[in-house]
Amino acid sequence: MELSYNHVSVVAIGNFNPAIASLDFLNKTCKLSLGDPTSHSPLEIPVHRQFQFQNLQFTVSITGLNISEIGIEDITQTKTLKIFDTYYKKLPYTPLRVVGININCELIVKSSDKADILQKKLSHPSTYLDFLGANEIIVTEMTSQTKTEKIWKSSNYRIENVNGFVRHIKVERRKESFGLNYNYETGNLEKNISDLNLLITGYEQFCDEFLGFTKYLED
After folding, report:
1. Structural domain containing residue 24
2. 7 and 32 co-located in one domain
3. What would the pLDDT profile of 172-188 be if each residue is shown by its tens digit?
4. CA distance 26 to 29
């Protein structure tokens, strides 16, 4: 099985002021040294800011912040967490509700037989329960139905408490691969903002878990 990364992203839900997010604020005040963007949203629209850099997209609206990095080879070296942490520390009174980190990739297998075996694992809730040592999982499944068979298309899985954080895992059958988005997040930050630091400092452990999961699929 081959692993190809699409992006690593940090997504925050809360109350933001997009008008603050100017290039001067990012590069000079936050000292992020992102340089000049290759494109950006209209700066005269104060409720939405989006800057596209070479391998990084920074998007902020009044309800959320999304920092996404493509071209990833080593997920432990992503810049997204440092950028989010630096940005938030400059605006510590920004109300946050939920923050999550996503590793998004393609799982590629070379033969139809191996694809069928992998699909059976990805589409079965016990795969996630067993790997994560959980007792319960919430499943939303999409299928199509013919007169003779049911065809699996995708599944969304949610496990409420794995080492203190929620796991959201989405898998999807594509033409020549399986799309996988592996997410961990913390909510209720209005009352427990200290969980945010635990989420960020636990990223390396989360990477180990993710890579362990991909190896588990190959067993």
Report:
1. 2-102
2. yes
3. 999 889 999 999 999 98
4. 6
